[in-house]
């Protein structure tokens, strides 16, 4: 059985079942209609599936290394456990797709539609997710360290306990996302919309949050050692019991922010770094540094 038997015009309407090991990537045509096809565990490395219709198809544990799936339709497709290293999924449509435990090392998912997709426990390996739409996606247990998520849409996404160390989230939209207990050390969150975001207990050591909008965000108990918060908006944010040692708050909007119990040793505010001066200055800027009790 050959894959080109299932290309539009073949006279077969599917759904298609293709025995494992019989697929030849040389026989694949772009724009192929493979909706509902069973391609599980198939060898499709370097295959040209550009703009193909693979909606509701089973590609679980398939070898798609280096395959061209750009602008492909993969609605509700099963890609769990698939090898997608170096694959081109730019502009692909993957709403509700299952990518759990898939290998995405150096894959290009820029501009892909991944709304409500299952990306739990994926290994992205420096994948390009820039400008991707990940609203409502499940990223639980994912390791996204050093991933490119710049400009991505992540509003209302559950990123709790996710490893985002060194990730590029600059310009991303994270409104109402759950980042509680996330690992964000040395991540780039500059100019990011983080209004009302839950960052409680998060690890943000050395992260770049310059120019970020953190209005009303929950940063309670977060580790903000040496974090760059310069020019950030922190109005009415909860920074209670955070560690701000050596953090940069120069030019930040701190009106109404809660600093009760915060460690502000060495915090940088207009060049003043002594703790007493920092506390006094935070209060002058409208920050709350003393409990009302």
Coarse morphology:
elongated
Distance between the termini: 77 Å
Mean pLDDT across every amino acid position: 85
Number of strands: 0
Rg: 23 Å
Q: Main sheet?
A: none
How large is the share of residues in beta strands?
under 5%
Low-confidence stretches: 1-22, 271-276
User: Structural class of the helices, strands and pairings?
Assistant: little secondary structure
**Fraction of residues in helix:** under 10%
User: Please, how many helices?
Assistant: 1
The succession of helices and strands, N to C, reads H
Describe the structure.
This protein is mostly loops and 293 residues long. It is built from one helix and no strands. The protein has one helix at residues 275-284. It is elongated and about 70 Å long.
Q: What attributes characterize this protein structure?
A:
single chain; 293 residues; little secondary structure; 1 helix; 3% helix; 0% strand; elongated; disordered N terminus
Quick summary of this structure?
The chain has 293 residues and is mostly loops. The chain contains one helix and no strands.
Which secondary structure elements does this structure contain, and how are they paired or packed?
Blueprint: H1 275-284
């Amino acid at each position: 059985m050959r894959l080109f038997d299932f290309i539009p015009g073949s006279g077969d309407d599917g759904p298609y079942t293709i025995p494992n090991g019989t697929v030849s990537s040389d026989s694949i045509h772009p724009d192929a209609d493979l909706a509902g096809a069973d391609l599980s565990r198939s060898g499709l490395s370097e295959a040209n599936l550009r703009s193909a219709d693979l909606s509701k198809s089973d590609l679980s544990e398939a070898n798609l290394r280096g395959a061209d799936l750009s602008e492909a339709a993969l609605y509700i497709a099963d890609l769990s456990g698939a090898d997608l290293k170096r694959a081109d999924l730019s502009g692909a449509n993957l709403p509700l797709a299952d990518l759990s435990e898939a290998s995405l090392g150096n894959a290009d998912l820029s501009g892909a539609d991944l709304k409500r997709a299952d990306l739990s426990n994926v290994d992205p390996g420096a994948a390009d997710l820039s400008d991707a739409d990940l609203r409502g996606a499940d990223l639980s247990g994912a390791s996204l360290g050093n991933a490119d998520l710049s400009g991505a849409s992540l509003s209302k996404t559950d990123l709790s306990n996710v490893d985002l160390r060194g990730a590029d989230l600059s310009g991303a939209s994270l409104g109402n996302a759950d980042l509680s207990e996330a690992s964000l050390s040395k991540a780039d969150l500059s100019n990011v919309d983080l209004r009302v975001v839950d960052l409680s207990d998060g690890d943000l050591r050395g992260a770049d949050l310059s120019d970020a909008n953190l209005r009303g965000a929950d940063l309670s108990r977060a580790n903000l050692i040496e974090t760059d918060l310069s020019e950030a908006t922190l109005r009415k944010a909860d920074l209670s019991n955070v560690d701000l040692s050596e953090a940069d708050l120069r030019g930040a909007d701190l009106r109404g922010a809660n600093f009760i119990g915060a460690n502000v040793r060495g915090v940088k505010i207009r060049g003043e770094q002594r703790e007493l001066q920092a506390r006094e200055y935070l209060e002058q800027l409208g920050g709350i540094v003393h409990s009302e009790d």
